[in-house]
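Input structure tokens:
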């Protein structure tokens, strides 16, 4: 079955970098941008050029460096922002300006002290102005998750008419349920005149832990771009995690959707971003957490040793992890011990294994995890005459 392509818009360097205390310097941003390009993302949101001279320079340097992906700069619906972003993006092979404004009643009333008609006028003016600098203009309707669908459709229709090539529908506060977010995308797909001229984009925050589910609901209902970050980093509870959406689409071919991402680089990219931002990846994080392919209970270990697919739905090699790990703890069984002993050079007979296992349990009760070096010690403690062949 031929698959529809979903564009991956990476915002690690913009929305992701808004994590308190995790600022990247210009050099680190360049290294990450180069890796994102290699990973196969379609668009790199490199920063918010008007926000500081440092951000302007980073966007400008990334625009010079990136070979394949489009490079994008964020703006408010403000002429000066757009001019500065256009200037920063000048060297890019594929420049994109990302402009927009809040569309929920709460934003219109409290943030802008304005009304719906004036917001549409500002949105159109911003897109038209951005269009005078670059062909590729993405419009974001901030807080679209809490914007009523009818008004949101009117905004989208007006900006598509003004030339927007991408319609970003952010669930800025991470409030939506997957059904609700999916229905919003479907509503826009069915009710915005001219919507076929633009790509609908999902930009979901994770305040209720639903960012990934909402993004998937979005593409199932017709969106063809997902905005996400490596490790799901971002302000508050973060953004949609790139590695999760990429692997969900890959592991579910019946959805008929795929991305250009080279998944074998996912693990390494995750470590790189984690290290540069000084932000650890939680061990149980899907796809890239240290425990994502580690098995510690005896029943699971026995199953995985017999056939990896018993307890794993992803081949670790597909995301750049060398192999599943069998962690030896007091809950491990003989199969796991024999497997790990073999890896360090001991071929144990059944009788030997019985004896080594009893010694192992004594060790495991004292230690949280048994390392390779402990295995040598355990075998020596049995006083059996077993030679390591490694
Ligand atoms: O979450 C959001 O609404 C945003 C926009 C600025 C795109 O990050
Ligand atoms: Zn955001």
């Amino acid at each position: 079955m031929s698959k529809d392509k979903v564009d991956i818009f990476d915002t690690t360097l913009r929305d992701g970098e808004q994590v308190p205390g995790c600022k990247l310097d210009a050099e680190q941003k360049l290294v990450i941008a180069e890796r994102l390009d290699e990973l196969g993302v379609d668009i790199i949101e490199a920063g918010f050029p008007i926000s500081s001279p440092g951000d302007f320079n980073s966007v400008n340097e990334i625009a010079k460096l990136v070979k394949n992906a489009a490079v994008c700069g964020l703006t408010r619906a403000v002429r000066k922002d757009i001019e500065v972003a256009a200037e920063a993006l000048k060297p890019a092979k594929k420049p994109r300006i990302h402009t927009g404004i809040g569309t929920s009643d709460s934003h219109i009333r409290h943030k802008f002290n304005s009304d719906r008609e004036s917001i549409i006028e500002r949105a159109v003016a911003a897109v038209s102005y951005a269009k005078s600098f670059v062909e590729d203009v993405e419009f974001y309707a901030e807080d679209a998750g809490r914007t009523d669908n009818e008004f949101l459709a009117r905004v989208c229709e007006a900006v598509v008419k003004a030339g927007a090539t991408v319609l970003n529908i952010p669930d800025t506060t991470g409030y939506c349920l997957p059904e609700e977010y999916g229905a919003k995308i479907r509503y826009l797909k069915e009710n915005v005149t001219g919507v076929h001229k633009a790509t609908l984009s999902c930009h979901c925050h994770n305040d209720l832990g639903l960012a990934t589910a909402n993004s998937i609901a979005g593409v199932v209902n017709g969106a063809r771009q997902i905005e996400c970050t490596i490790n799901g980093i971002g302000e508050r509870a973060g953004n949609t995690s790139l590695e999760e959406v990429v692997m969900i689409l890959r592991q579910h071919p019946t959805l008929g959707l795929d991305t250009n991402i080279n998944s074998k680089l996912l693990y390494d990219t995750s470590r790189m971003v984690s290290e540069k931002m000084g932000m650890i990846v939680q061990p149980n994080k899907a796809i890239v957490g240290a425990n994502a392919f580690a098995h510690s209970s005896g029943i699971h270990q026995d199953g995985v040793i017999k056939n990896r697919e018993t307890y794993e739905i992803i081949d670790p090699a597909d995301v750049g992890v060398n192999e599943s790990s069998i962690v030896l703890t007091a809950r491990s069984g003989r199969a796991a011990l024999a497997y790990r002993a073999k890896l360090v050079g001991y071929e144990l007979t059944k009788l030997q294994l019985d004896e080594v296992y009893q010694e192992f349990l004594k060790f495991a009760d004292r230690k949280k995890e048994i390392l390779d070096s402990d295995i040598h010690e355990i075998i020596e403690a049995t006083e059996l005459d077993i030679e390591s062949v490694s």
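The CA atoms of residues 103 and 141 lie 6 Å apart. The chain has two domains: 4-277, 294-382.
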